[in-house]
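Journal club prep — side note

Before the paper discussion, L.F. wants everyone to see what a predicted structure for a comparable chain looks like in token form. Sequence:
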Amino acid sequence: MATGSSSTSASSSRGGTGSRGKSVPRQGGISTYMGQERALRAGRLGTAGLLLSVLAATGPLMVVAGVMPTTYGVMGVVGQPLLFLILGVVLALFSFGYAEMSRHVHNAGAFYAYISRGLGGTAGAAASAVALVAYSVLQVGLFGLLGFEVAGLLEKYAEVTVGWWIPALVAVAIVGALGWLKIDLNARVLGVLLLVEVALVVIFDIAAVADPAKEGLSLHAFNPDTLTGAGVATSLCFCIAAFTGFEQAPVYAEETSRPQVVVARVMFFAVGFVAVFFALSSWALTVAAGPSGIVPAAQQQSAGLLFGLTEPRLGTTFTDVLHVLFVTGIFAAVLSFHNVVARYAFAMGREGLLPAAFGRTNSASGAPGTGSLLQTAISVSVVIAFALTDDAPAGDPTAPVLRLFTWGGNVGALGVLLLMATASVAVIVFFVRRGAAGPQIWRITASALAAVALLVIAGYTVKDFDVLVGAGPDSSLSWVLPGIIGLTAVVGIAYGAYLKKARPAAHARIGLGNEAFQLEKAAGDAGREGTPRRM
């Protein structure tokens, strides 16, 4: 049974009139009597625009230049390419159920909307809080890395020394301004940046294969025997963080043409592309350095590994361009996460989980402007807070940036992992409660397997959090940082329980999105009172 906004879209396209003969405003397929400012503009994104927006969040060049060398160097696991393929299978299993939910529920709140439809409004309230915090810290952490890289480029090429926080704040302002613009314009910006960085990585991959190390075109990195030792579980945590972003496709369902088809298509393509692209690129690193030399090289050069392997093969100019595009790739990921956070805030404001002001859009662009302002304010506050704790000399931003980037990235990735696992359980409950267990049995089975695998990875993430953030085993960071997600979930549950008791109408609206307005309109036209019912 379709429970999303597809029914409202259909009525809108047929002319959209209320039972009293009054015209219902049309939003490119989304009809809401609450007015244009309470709906995102439909039909703004097609398959290509949505795919580029989603893939930009994965930061392909950032992963190849940053995550992969760190995983090789810190964990010493040569079989990283095989890990990416294994994780691709796990996330494909997750996508079977998650994508099917996207055909039934069209809501910018994605994760929490799906979870509320399956597990109830209180669970949805907790998921909304976790999603808002997780994606926010992911984005703010990237601002730290962006500031560090830009400061380094200015020092190298312009001989200008600036604190990392200055370019970080400039980037916050630019991203905030873009967040107010139409989503299709943002998609074009993201698309250009993404295609260029993917092209550069592909060029490196080809160069590595054409000029391998002394061990030749070895496939040793795909040997299952390489996945042994204590570092494998933690390597899974590093690698799955590289996939973060593909799950964002349903967030744009209300702004997508034919969401029942496009969202699912984009998700599967994104998972497949990311798994294969990262597997091949991490293998190319082992080819360029040699399977026996990749770990020592990564330990010695760290994040400079890719650039060190590129320069002798493709020259200094190409390597310099790669450095610059590394920065633009980070910027693309930041902008993508910003758009997602703004839409989560919009969905939460629309449903009473945040003040109503967040549930309104910019009249000119249809973008969730208040949500964009919220994320901009959060980013400015966090960057300034980390800048004030920077006691290093000017131009040496290593300590604060490592804290901001690694803390934000790992806390955010943990939150997304738990949301995916919970959403997988919600998918099962959603279809079982609706008597669709038989027809959906293979999706239910896939979701169950995904939930188990994701919970196992989340468990290892919490267990090894000290390694992920570079802290000592006795450091309080090993429980304080993951505790942020736990505390957020508890606060969300408490608030959801409060809404259920004190404001049942608001609690009943959680996860319904624009559909709640349609139900209220129908109830009002029929002269009946009541609260939105969960369908």
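L.F.'s comment for the group: The radius of gyration is 23 Å. Keep this in mind when we get to the figures.
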